[in-house]
Amino acid sequence: MSIERELKKRSNNSCEFCSSAEELTIYQVPPKQKKTTSNQSVYACRTCTGQIEDPKKTNANHWRCLNDSMWSEYKAVQIVAWRMLNRLRNEGWPQDLLDMMYLEEKDLKWAQATGEGEDPEEKIIHKDSNGVVIEAGDSVVLIKDLPVKGSSMIAKRGTAVRRVSLDHENAEYIEGKVDGQQIVIITKYVKKI
Predict the structure, then answer these.
(1) CA quadruple 72, 75, 76, 82: dihedral positive or negative?
(2) Is the pTM of this model over 0.90?
(3) CA 3-27-85 angle, 5° bins
(4) Each residue of 94-130: pLDDT tens digit?
(5) Disulfide engineering: 148 pairs with which of 8, 153, 189, 190, CB 3.0-4.6 Å?
């Protein structure tokens, strides 16, 4: 059974957060694994995925649906619910839901892997060569030829790397695909597009 069919079946063809039945898509819960599975994915509408991926678009009232979806039996749904509640906790009501929510230790580590829920002072911030903040999903361009460790490949200057992911333990590392290969890139050698 394909991942999409599994997700459609478990969600009854609706968003696993807000129950919308329109513009549904598979959202792989970060950090991304080499192989996508239904256990690491959720079926969500475009509104939810857009707000999950871009904190600036977050509408707190839209996420009142987490009152129900945080109790989902599926871990990936719980993880995203925990992250969104943490992002919104200054609104007041999300903190009450967080106080009721329980995640096992390994699931909590997965939920914290993106840095959601950390105090802003403790959060690792990734910046490009010009000091511009790089967010997960941004596109960058290499400003220097970079040899790829463990490979004979050289990532050429001027290469665009789309939809980068962040290393949440080191502010100097991001990851992205160059010539179909996932590599770690040092932030001082990129410029945000």
Answers:
(1) positive
(2) no
(3) 130
(4) 999 999 999 999 999 898 887 776 555 566 889 999 9
(5) 153
